[in-house]
Design brief:
Layout lengths: L3 H17 L4 H4 L10 H20 L1 H16 L4 H12 L5 H21 L5 E2 L6 E2 H22 L11 H9 L1 H6 L11 E5 L5 E4 L7 E5 H8 L11 E3 L1 H9 L22
Parallel strand pairs: 3-5
Antiparallel strand pairs: 1-2, 3-4, 5-6
Helix pairs in contact: 1-6, 1-7, 3-4, 3-5, 3-6, 3-7, 4-5, 8-10
């Protein structure tokens, strides 16, 4: 049986591929609300790290070389976009535009299938600490969903979310301590009670119930906040207590240096 989280990753990727459909180079050059990345930049980012995720499972030495190449680019002052195109030039024939989107669409099902058959508890290397294959494919779903947000936003479309978003919400919950420690802050205790409503209407809860320390609302909006695709003040999430509010103002469920969430009003579904 295919690992459910791998199926969730594929469904998330299918949703993103579907909204782009037969997009051509002109549409793919559209600048999004995320750091002035174009849609092409987003797809390139997702694609090369999908390639890396399959390498770490099937070709650990190849993954180590991939990481050396990317880190070497970072050390010369290149950012993610420059580094990814440098890697694509050296390893994928310099594909761009529609050819890059096609490569992305051809590749992610292979990644889903490989992780779907893997031992969920087997460990794989990554840029940071090793992780289980289950955690790795959830991380790929999170990246696909969070970067997909800027594509849906700039296209002026509402994403059709499903209950697979629980994986992303749960990642947001489990990185509570990381959010603070990554900023050299002691995580406040106790952790806030979190009550979220799923797209299906189901209610999900985490941590001990507390009326004076809680986050309540939509699982989609909570996931948008912890992936930093929305400012907390651009959502209808309810926070009660200083700790809950502080967390939602800086929440970060992804690895890397501390990032500043988008300013209020800067990330939204485009209109007109």
């Amino acid at each position: 049986m295919m690992m459910q989280e791998a199926r969730d990753f594929k469904d998330e990727s299918d949703t993103l591929a579907a909204v782009l459909g037969d997009a051509g180079d002109d549409l793919l050059s559209t600048v999004t609300q995320f750091k002035s990345w174009t849609i092409e930049d987003v797809i390139g980012h997702l694609h090369i790290w999908n390639v890396a995720a399959l390498m770490t499972l099937q070709d650990p030495d190849g993954f180590k070389q991939f990481l050396r190449d990317i880190m070497a680019a970072f050390q010369t002052g290149k950012g993610h976009v420059e580094a990814q195109y440098e890697w694509l030039d050296a390893n994928a024939g310099g594909i761009r535009g529609r050819a890059l989107l096609d490569a992305y669409c051809d590749y992610y099902p292979k990644l889903a299938a490989a992780y779907g058959e893997a031992d969920p508890e087997a460990r794989v290397a990554w840029a940071g600490p090793d992780m289980t294959t289950r955690s790795k494919i959830i991380a790929r779903q999170m990246e696909t969903w969070s970067h997909g947000q800027e594509i849906f936003d700039i296209l002026g479309k509402e994403r059709p979310d499903g209950d697979r978003i629980r994986n992303i919400a749960h990642l947001g919950i489990t990185t509570y301590g990381w959010t603070f420690r990554n900023r050299r802050q002691e995580p406040p205790a106790p952790k806030p009670f979190v009550q979220l409503t799923a797209p299906s209407g189901a209610v999900w809860e985490w941590n001990d119930p507390q009326e004076d320390n809680l986050v309540r609302g939509s699982a989609v909006e909570f996931s948008q906040v912890v992936t930093q695709t929305r400012n907390i003040d651009d959502t209808a999430l309810e926070t009660v207590g200083t700790t809950a509010r502080q967390w939602m103002e800086i929440a970060q469920c992804f690895a890397g240096a501390p990032e500043t969430p988008p300013a209020k009003g800067t990330r939204a579904i485009a209109t007109g």
